[in-house]
């Protein structure tokens, strides 16, 4: 991908950031200096999840090492042999997590806390949902200049056409080739949206910018590098809009995709008991409440008492929620041929001078 990206800089699309170096932080009780009792790899930024991890470490008396990685890299780690994988994987790339379970890389876990989870929030006692993520559009209001804020994909397309050269190179999203969540949400659009073909063409013509994660896209909005962001995770975007009122988050009225962040314990985990303790805490009612309060993520348990539960989001939205469920249907998105076809369609629109892909690996 790095070689491909360097070639593309001379063409119509600007790829920003490329692969990111992993970021690691250790959380521990006061006056404790020891090797990690629990090793977690996840896609959530360290700064966002740090308060929750620190409170867990202090409460349980454990040393927790958390490494922030790209979604594709997190999935690869789970397939490593004994000693090479983390103890727990937290990811928003649902289809990659489900494939790891299906391929035998996760270990099952049952407890009183797990038994209380809704059936839709777990898969075969090996994959567990812990947060919702509505997928949103984000607009810098400076672009509007009196125009109406777009509330749907149709209206977004109308705005882009009306603004013409003003939005050339000013639309951003995560890179669907390197970011699991980006691929998952774009593939979902390809099946759900009647405007999908128009979006693909319009984004390509507008010299779409690509970023390695949702936070990077939001920072680009703040700096004025872009005016429009598409298919970002809602928890980050809502928080950003609260801090910067000229940046507005929209759950599209035609439909809003909703995915789930999930957790699994790799089969080769070195500290499986500590991972189980973490899961029980994360998925408990009190843990879900702390997750919402301390990280801004949206708990899957509405009784957790956070104003950012799915029920609250339903009240805010004027459109239709279309959840992405944990199901065998989701596994179809990991099919190599389907991925190749979707990426070739994508590349034909945004990389028009490139040859079709032959490498379908995530």
Automatic annotation (TrEMBL):
Entry's Pfam families? SBP_bac_11
A single Gene Ontology CC annotation of this entry is: outer membrane-bounded periplasmic space
Look up the signal peptide feature and give its range: 1-21
Q: Which organism is it from?
A: Marinobacterium mangrovicola
**Superkingdom of this protein's organism:** Bacteria
Name-wise, this protein is: Iron(III) transport system substrate-binding protein
What are the UniProt keywords, alphabetically?
A: Signal
């Amino acid at each position: 991908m790095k070689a491909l990206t360097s070639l593309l800089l001379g063409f119509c699309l600007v790829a920003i950031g490329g692969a990111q170096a992993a970021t690691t932080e250790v959380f521990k009780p006061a006056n404790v200096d020891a090797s990690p009792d629990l090793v977690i790899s996840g896609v959530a930024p360290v700064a966002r999840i740090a308060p929750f991890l620190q409170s867990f470490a202090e409460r349980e008396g454990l040393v927790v090492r958390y490494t922030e990685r790209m979604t594709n890299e997190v999935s690869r780690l789970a397939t490593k042999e004994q000693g090479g994988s983390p103890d727990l994987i937290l990811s928003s790339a649902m289809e990659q997590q489900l494939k790891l379970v299906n391929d035998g890389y996760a270990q099952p876990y049952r407890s009183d806390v797990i038994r209380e989870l809704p059936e839709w929030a777990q898969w075969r006692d090996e994959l567990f949902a812990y947060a919702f993520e509505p997928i949103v559009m984000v607009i810098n209001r400076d672009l509007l200049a009196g125009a109406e804020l777009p509330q749907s994909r149709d209206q977004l397309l109308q705005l882009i056409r009306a603004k013409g050269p003003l939005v050339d190179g000013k639309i951003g999203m995560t890179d669907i080739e390197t970011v699991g969540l980006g691929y998952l949400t774009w593939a979902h659009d390809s099946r759900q949206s009647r405007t999908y073909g128009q979006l693909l063409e319009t984004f390509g013509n507008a010299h779409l910018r690509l970023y390695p994660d949702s936070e990077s896209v939001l920072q680009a909005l703040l700096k004025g590098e872009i005016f429009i962001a598409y298919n970002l995770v809602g928890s980050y975007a809502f928080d950003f809009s609260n801090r910067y009122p000229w940046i507005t988050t929209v759950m599209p009225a035609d439909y809003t995709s909703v995915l789930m962040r999930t957790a699994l314990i790799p089969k080769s985990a070195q500290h499986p008991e500590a991972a189980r303790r973490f899961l029980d805490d994360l998925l408990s009612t009190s843990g879900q409440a702390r997750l919402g309060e301390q990280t801004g993520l949206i708990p899957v348990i509405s009784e957790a008492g956070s104003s950012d539960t799915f029920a609250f989001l339903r009240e805010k939205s004027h459109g239709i929620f279309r959840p992405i469920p944990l199901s065998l249907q989701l596994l179809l998105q990991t099919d190599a041929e389907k991925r190749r076809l979707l990426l070739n369609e994508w590349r034909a629109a945004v990389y028009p001078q490139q040859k079709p892909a032959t490498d379908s690996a995530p």
